[in-house]
C-alpha cells in the first residue's frame, strides 16, 4: 500500500470509486446528522446498519475486485472450522492495476474504520450505550473488510513470490539442461 497519492494519474474506474466511497460516506453522514438532529434510535440504527452492510457488500464483492484485484470469503468446512479463501488476479493484471484506484481503496477502508472508532469513543464518553451498538456493528463490518483484504493481499504476494521462484527455477533448470545437452 503506497502512502502517497499518485500524481498525474486519473482514476481508471471512477464509477467503482464513487460507489466505494458513497456507502461509507452515506452511513457516516446519516449516523452523525440524524444523531444530532433526530432523536429516533430505531431509524438511526436500521438505516445506518443497512448502509454499512451495503458498503460491506460493495467493497467485498465489487470494488475490491475492480480496484485492487482481490476478493476474499470465509467458509466453514466439514469439521466446523472457519477457512479463509482468497482470490486475486494474475501477476500481469495486478501489475496493471491503477495506483490511484488502489490508493483510494486502501485509504478509505482504513479511514472509515478510524471514523467509526472515534464515533464509538464519543458514544462511550456520552454514555449512550445504544449508539455504541450501532457504531460497534459498523466498525465490525469495516474491520472485517480490512482483515479480509489484508490477508488476501498477503496471500497474493505469497503466490506471486512462489510463481516467480518456480519460473526462475524452471528457467535455470532449462538453461542447465540445454547447456549440458550441447556438451
Total helices: the number is: 5
Give me the side-by-side strand order of the main sheet.
Answer: 1-2
Shape: globular
Mean pLDDT: 80
Order of helices and strands: HHEEHHH
User: Which percent range fits the helix content?
Assistant: over 70%
**Major sheet, described briefly?**
2 strands, antiparallel
Terminal CA distance:
49 Å
Low-confidence stretches: none
Cα Rg: 22 Å
- Number of DSSP E strands: 2
How do the helices and strands line up, and which of them pair or pack?
Elements: H1 14-37, H2 41-68, E1 70-76, E2 82-88, H3 91-95, H4 99-125, H5 129-182
Antiparallel strand pairs: 1-2
Can you describe what's shown?
The protein is mostly helical and 183 residues long. Strand 1 (70-76) and strand 2 form a beta hairpin. Strands 1-2 form a two-stranded antiparallel sheet. The protein is built from five helices and two strands. It is globular, with a radius of gyration of 22 Å. Helix 1 (14-37) runs parallel beside helix 4, helix 2 runs parallel beside helix 5 (129-182) and helix 4 (99-125) packs antiparallel against helix 5. It has helices at residues 14-37, 41-68, 91-95, 99-125, 129-182; strands spanning 70-76, 82-88.
Amino acid at each position: 500500500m503506497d502512502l502517497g497519492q499518485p500524481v498525474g494519474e486519473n482514476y481508471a474506474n471512477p464509477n467503482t470509486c464513487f460507489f466505494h466511497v458513497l456507502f461509507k460516506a452515506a452511513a457516516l453522514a446519516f449516523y452523525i446528522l440524524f444523531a444530532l438532529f433526530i432523536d429516533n434510535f430505531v431509524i438511526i440504527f436500521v438505516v445506518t446498519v443497512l448502509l454499512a452492510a451495503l458498503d460491506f457488500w460493495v467493497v467485498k464483492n465489487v470494488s475490491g475486485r475492480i480496484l485492487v484485484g482481490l476478493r476474499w470469503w470465509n467458509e466453514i468446512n466439514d469439521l466446523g472450522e472457519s477457512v479463509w479463501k482468497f482470490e486475486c488476479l494474475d501477476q500481469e493484471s495486478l501489475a496493471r492495476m491503477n495506483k490511484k484506484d488502489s490508493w483510494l481503496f486502501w485509504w478509505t477502508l482504513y479511514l472509515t474504520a478510524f471514523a467509526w472508532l472515534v464515533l464509538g469513543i464519543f458514544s462511550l464518553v456520552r454514555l449512550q450505550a445504544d449508539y455504541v451498538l450501532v457504531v460497534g456493528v459498523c466498525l465490525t463490518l469495516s474491520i472485517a473488510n480490512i482483515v479480509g483484504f489484508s490477508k488476501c493481499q498477503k496471500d497474493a504476494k505469497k503466490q506471486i513470490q512462489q510463481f516467480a521462484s518456480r519460473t526462475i527455477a524452471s528457467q535455470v533448470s532449462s538453461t542447465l539442461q540445454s547447456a549440458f545437452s550441447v556438451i
